[in-house]
């Protein structure tokens, strides 16, 4: 029912936007729209599902994820999201939230991480991943992005992420920077955050995962990046692949100090 | 027993060295990072539908424009020269098509993603409004590129067939065919050169920009 309410509000907003022409910026409209939905973000349904999944014994090992170490010690969820991606000593890798959840699902629950990574978004275990991402990010809602950069591999991933961000390719010569390398730009009416720096509280990296009203889905950062690459006309980025983690480090470190509003609500 | 303690101590030191190694290891050089990034791109993507892996094999221009620093003036000139030389001019000397078809193409942002079925330009749009103001009636336009409103009028094109207009007509064609002819690191796609639009479609877009009857020039 909340999704329903959201959809009708979106319709009203679209009409208001068309009538009022551009007297009000899209950003203002969206901010107002978010305000209206503040007490009814459907992402809450995903959070509840995620919390339940976190605590439920599942998989061949019949274990919950309650001992999963997201970087702040086994079982600590609060504050984990605003410090990811980060280096993990047990896997000797820099991991983002989804990559780390895959590790926990495999080691603790005995689920097959490679199989989950191959599953299309929104289906099977991937639907569970989105709920888990909503749950974990919600526990850091209101906190400020604070990714660690002390470990050498975290610094290396930042540098690799920066190179990926500016990498031009595909039939349209696009890179991430084509749309997100300057402030004050937009595509059609959509404002584009400048991700080469901190774009502000609750903008860009600090606004995902998010519930998308237009599709009724909860999009994790992995899914957001995947759709960016689709629109960039690139080949398909692997789920939790190095390029996606490196971009997470680059954007997350740049966003240091930005307040996270995840799970946010988007058109 | 003393011997044993020494051994244990030695083992402990060795463990500490190994543990500390990752943190103490120096950062790779800029060139090493470039090589690691290139390997990462190859390993992280896979082909999906029409979006094949050759899409991340960069040409000279893409490579030179892949950092937060612009290429040297010499490299930029080289890219622009090659881009201009790549322009395929209309075989029949006809540069302008139908501006109404051009407007439809300007509105259409589809094509070339992994969810599209074919790379045939017939199914593609020009995505112009994504980044530019074009006609005044469309309020939903992007701002990555400059406004194109009054494009022909501002350049003094009263009659595109007039020889006095030839220079602007050719520039417009070449800019659409290969945008890098005039700016090495232009954000604009190379519509003709990259096979995003065919000759007929580019004619329609030239008409949208230069035809005095087009809403762009009202």
Give keywords:
heterodimer, A: 267 residues, mainly alpha, Cytochrome Bc1 Complex, Chain D, domain 2, 2 domains, three-stranded mixed sheet, two-stranded antiparallel ribbon, 10 helices, 9% strand, disordered N terminus, B: 218 residues, 9 helices, 45% helix, 1% strand
Question: Would you kindly provide a brief summary of this structure?
Answer:
The complex is a heterodimer of chains A (267) and B (218). Chain A is mostly helical.
Describe, in plain words, how this protein is organized in 3D:
- The complex is a heterodimer of chains A (267) and B (218).
- By secondary structure, chain A is mainly alpha-helical.
- Chain A has 2 domains: 1-40, no CATH class; 41-266, Cytochrome Bc1 Complex, Chain D, domain 2 (Orthogonal Bundle).
- Chain A contains 10 helices and 8 strands.
- In chain A, strand 1 and strand 2 (93-95) form a beta hairpin.
- The longest helix of chain A is centred in the N-terminal third of the chain and has 18 residues, at 2-19.
- Chain A is globular and about 50 Å long.
- Chain A starts with a helix and ends with a strand.
- Chain B is mainly alpha-helical and 218 residues long.
- Chain B has 2 domains: 2-68, no CATH class; 85-217, Cytochrome c-like domain (Cytochrome Bc1 Complex, Chain D, domain 2), CATH 1.10.760.
- In chain B, 45% of the residues lie in helices and 1% in strands.
- Chain B has 9 helices and 1 strand; from the N terminus they run ααβααααααα.
- The chains are: A mainly alpha (267), B mainly alpha (218).
- At the A-B interface, helix 7, helix 8, strand 3, strand 7 and helix 10 of A face helix 1, helix 2, strand 1, helix 3 and helix 6 of B.
- Strand 7 of chain A pairs antiparallel with strand 1 of chain B, so a sheet runs across the interface.
Strand content of chain A: 5-15%
Please give the radius of gyration of chain B in angstroms: 26 Å
Give the terminus-to-terminus CA distance of chain A: 17 Å
Q: Could you state the order of secondary-structure elements of chain A as H and E?
A: HHHEEHHHHHEEEEHEHE
Please, what is the oligomeric state? heterodimer
Q: Could you say which structural class the secondary elements and strand pairing of chain B correspond to? A: mainly alpha
Beta-strand content estimate of chain B: under 5%
Number of domains of chain A: 2
Instruction: Please summarize the sheet with the most strands of chain A.
Output: 3 strands, mixed
Q: What is the C-level CATH assignment of the largest domain in chain A?
A: Mainly Alpha
Looking at the overall shape, the CATH architecture of the largest domain in chain A is Orthogonal Bundle
